[in-house]
Amino acid sequence: MKLTELIQFDLIQFNFSASDKKDALNKLTGMLVEKGIIENRDEFLQALFDREAMSTTGVGDGIAIPHAKASCFKKAMIIYAKSNDGVEWESFDGQAAKHIYDLCTSQWSRRTSQGTSYAIYCFDEFRSEGST
To answer: Does the global pTM surpass 0.85?
Structure first.
């Protein structure tokens, strides 16, 4: 899977602002509806909330990786949001999330996992080159 197959560059958000992770997930899901990528906002948003209820997706070091699968997606994709102030995400290390990678798919597969891991690695390399 190519990185360009996972990322729609019009879904990359800089200067992202949200009051908390619930607000962030609402805004990111709303963007998918606005762009015509999904029609059923509630299905995907509920899947994200259900996943967060299992355990936080705030992995630490200012990174959150919310993810969910929902039938409303035709293909896997990644939404990236950069928050200068950070969003409280109940991360394992207590740090606010400044880099949010929202992974969206209709089903998980080994290929999807490899592609999303590679995409996050690329964004992390970009971030470490001084763009934080």
So the answer is: no
